[in-house]
Amino acid sequence: MNRFGTRFRIALWGESHGPQIGVVLDGVPAGIALTAEDFEADLARRRCGPTGTTPRHEPDVPQIVSGIYRGYTTGAPLTIEFTNTDTRPQDYDATAGHDRPSHADRTAYEKFSGWNDPRGGGHFSGRLTLTLTAAGVVAKKMLPANVAFSTDIVEIGGCTEPERFDTLLHETAEAKDSVGGMVECRVQGVPAGLGDPYFDSAESVIAQLLFAIPGVKGVEFGSGFAGAQMRGSEHNDPIVDAAGHTATNHAGGIAGGLTNGNELVVRAAFKPTASIGRPQNTYNRMTEQVEPLILAGRHDVCIALRGAVVVEAAVAIALADLLHR
């Protein structure tokens, strides 16, 4: 339920406002140099601070509690923990039973018969993407040295001009609303032949992890949905050399479910953040009435902002698992 992977396996645990969250990674090869400092660059990309991100301040210091000896992985399960220090579970007391629209509050209540942790979404919270980001750091170390990632936010609220993003985010925050966004991840140096036909295709494995990221509602590779509007003569990628390089890359680096040696191109679409400051009329289980809901708590205006590094981590985890099968 909370696990992913065949040879490189990860398991997430913890809740948004619980004492800790963490990840256990099994199948990490022995002898990989790894220290807490190796996580800092990617964890910093996920932290709050930029315009449109949550005011919740967490230090996000990784504690490696198993699978390391003298700075190198041992081959045993690697466990990484993070302490939650800036929690405010009382923010959710007033909304108990008054489920937030487009959140997991209602579905989690039904799934677990009301025994789920509702504080900030509990185990369903985007807070747990911190553990995915940490797993991605390790996954990148398991890939060939020439594999290089380039991940960018290419769209926010329908705007594709990065110079306008801050203005749009400020306007949205002032309106106590939220916006969605699109993240594009490009990976060079991916070996050809990763994946299997049908159920374990490279697209299937990568998409499974991307859809596990809270807020992701769409995934596409290469030309994606735009390919449905093209003809074969436009969409086909002619092979130009013995190495399998292609003149175009509408396939996004995957053909027949297998990586083809060209640049991997995948995009993930994030919905607008569900938690907004504007009043919303929605059903209250406690009173059995539709009533105005006004949320407290601290939330991102656009979850794609801090989600970019999570998308990159998910792709890295999937590639690491495919490579070591």
Write the layout of secondary structure elements.
Layout: E1 3-4, E2 9-14, E3 20-26, H1 40-46, E4 63-66, E5 68-69, E6 72-73, E7 78-83, H2 105-111, H3 129-141, E8 148-156, H4 165-174, E9 181-188, H5 202-211, E10 216-221, H6 232-235, E11 254-255, E12 258-259, E13 264-270, E14 280-284, E15 289-293, H7 304-323
Antiparallel strand pairs: 1-2, 2-3, 3-7, 4-7, 5-6, 8-9, 9-13, 10-13, 11-12, 14-15
Helix pairs in contact: 1-7, 3-7, 5-7
Helix content: 10-25%
Structural class of the secondary structure composition?
alpha+beta
Global geometry: globular
Tally of helical runs: 7
Question: Secondary-structure element order, as H and E?
Answer: EEEHEEEEHHEHEHEHEEEEEH
Mind summarizing the main beta sheet?
A: 5 strands, antiparallel
What is the gyration radius calculated from CA atoms? 21 Å
**Residue ranges: pLDDT <50 for 5 or more in a row?**
none
Q: What amount of the residues lies in strands?
A: 15-25%
Number of strands: 15
Distance between the termini: 21 Å
Mean pLDDT over the full residue set: 93
The strand line-up of the biggest sheet is 1-2-3-7-4
